Amino acid sequence: MRKLLPRLALAFATTVLMLGAAGCKKPKAGEPCKAGQRVANNYPGGSCAGKNAILCVDGTYEDVKCADSCSSMMGDVSCDRVKDEDEPCFQDEKADCSNDHKKMLKCTKGKWKLTMACKSAKGCISNVEGVSCESAEADEGDACKQKNAGSCNPDKDKLLVCDGKKFFVASSCRGQNHCRAAGSKIECDTSMAEIGDPCEDEDKLSCDTKKKVLLRCNGKTFEKKEACAKRCNNAFDKYSCD
User: Fold this and answer.
1) Are strands 205-208 and 192-193 parallel, antiparallel or unpaired?
2) Is the separation of the CB atoms in 66 and 88 below 8 Å?
3) How far is CA 190 from the centre of its chain?
């Protein structure tokens, strides 16, 4: 009997180790999962795979890029995830900035999708007030999702508006103040324009850049309203011909 006890103890210990090893099996990308409550950049039930992390995203383990490194302790994975187009995201994070703060992103079906490019010096800002493109700049044709959102081109001489898919030129901004951000609004100085320039406000008046012609917006472009014998006046948003 004395000789059997060590053998039984050894067999029991081996069984426990095997069970423990099975319980510590690391998840693999593509396997189903059930996400637990996470705190900040800590995620329960995942694992590290080099610099990347295997995290539970919308019911499935996915290989997620970490901006710096991945570390694991007591079953929690710490990963400052890479936020960029088509990278995995979590449904509770509806909007955020990319890591380089050059893009406004929205989490759609477990993937980050571009809402708007943020090309200004301030870029994309995320704080308690929400996510926004500060002093937004864009180029004609840039992708965007926020319909009717306004932006300025880099040269500040055009007002761009999002049609839900891309930015288009809504108006020229040839006046002294050009195109600029004023708080949460984008202002466009149309006090000067050229015949054929795009415009939005029907019957809006302007002077040509040589101040020889009084212009009128027909709802799409500026057209000639009247030739001025001496000068087209555009002071204080009042227009007249001398």
Assistant:
1) parallel
2) no
3) 29
Torsion angle, alpha carbons of 140, 141, 145, 149, to 10: 10
Cβ contacts of 99-105, under 8 Å, gap ≥ 24: 99/67, 101/125, 104/131, 104/132, 104/133
Residues 121-163 have pLDDT tens digits of 778 888 877 887 765 678 899 888 778 888 889 899 999 998 9
> Hey, which bits of 118-166 come out as E strands?
124-127, 130-133, 150-152, 158-162
Residue ranges per structural domain of the chain: 30-82, 190-242
Give CATH for domain 190-242. 2.30.130
- Return d(Cα 67, Cα 38) in angstroms, integer: 18
The pLDDT tens digits for 86-95 are 988 876 678 8
> Could you give the CA distance from residue 228 to residue 141 in angstroms, rounded to a whole number?
37
Bridge-partner residues for 66, per DSSP? 81
- Tell me how many degrees the CA angle 178-184-188 measures, rounded to the nearest 5: 20
CA distance between the termini of the chain: 121
Q: What is the DSSP letter of 137?
A: B
pTM above 0.70, yes or no: no
